[in-house]
Amino acid sequence: MNGSKAFRRRVTTTERMYFPMRELAPPFLMQLVIPGEGNIDPDALRSAVTTAAAVTPGARLRRHGDEWVEGDTDPAVRVLDHQLSYPALEADVVVTGAIGPTPDATVEVLLLTGASTTLIFRVFHGVMDGMGMVVWARNVLRALRGEDPIPHPDPIADQELVAKVGTPGKPTPMVPRYRTAVGRGRQHRELAPHLLRHRRIEGAGPGALARVCALLAAETPGTSRIMMPVDLRRHDPSLRSTANLALPLFLDIEPGRHWTAIKEQIKAGLHERRELSQLASTRITLVPDPVNRAVLRTTNWLGARLGRNLASATVSHMGRFTTDELTIPGFRPTGLFVLPQHSVAMPLLFGLTEFDGHTDLTVSARNGAGIEPRLEALLDRLVAMLEADLPTPSPADQPQ
Q1: Which of 2-6, 59-63, 267-271 is predicted with the least confidence, judged by mean pLDDT?
Q2: What total number of domains does the chain contain?
Q3: What's the pTM?
């Protein structure tokens, strides 16, 4: 374990809602995908995972009642002769498979050795948020380069941080009344319950998230409610924790609002620290797990059958990355993107990342009759818009 005393922290109200999702929207994992050129030695990767986990205890957590406790086993490293199944990633047996090696595992690392080498960090959302996953992956890459990983020993998640910094007001009411850009569709057993898609945009620059929000609103009847996760670490830059430290900023957007106005809307919300108030809305999870499951099933039915959702979409930007900062001996990354977790509570979950002047756009979508062609058409429009509006990298900007 990490030192002489096991790392432990309380399971937060936010995290409680994620446990039923493992059953309702499997595998309910965030996944950081790093394709590249070259090879990674499996034994070197296992050693790096051990080194990184020693100072990143959030990667070794198991649930014990109302607490997360650091276990004595490092995250599993699985080596698979496999190539990702583009474009319909929801049919890929690896990224849609359960985490291993046991049901209580929360983090694992995959090394795919198919036509090209791909590294995948898989994380149960109950133990980390997206930025925590990025921190964990960077620590493993540091260890692979022979560098010291950065310790993240703080047993702090959203509840403790919000209690420390305070809330500015009341939470945004959660009412299932919002439409979505792909409409509604009755779910059938012969259809995959969720779709998982990835697109790469030849261009990158500021404003990508606001532009995506603007187009989603333009494609949605009535006012859209976009949920934008906000990293709470901004309120305490000294904090070193991989736990769930993200709360939503809700953006209500009418069709036709320009992306620059949405960008100002985001700035105002961040300035007012509105995301901190949303922790209060997670208290609904302080009920038995069967009740949580029933609420989530009802939420899914309202969205799929009636088109009434708690939010129109979630849109996250996970950051900007370069080849140089991610390269390790023998392996040169050619990209980085995030596969969002599936959800029965949200119709669309978009993830954005920027890599060497390109933008990767991914989405998990609740499936249903007619949803797939509408989703593909929406992605076509999003890609066309972003490639028209974002600067395209010049040959001189490309890594050699």
Answers
A1: 2-6
A2: 1
A3: 0.95
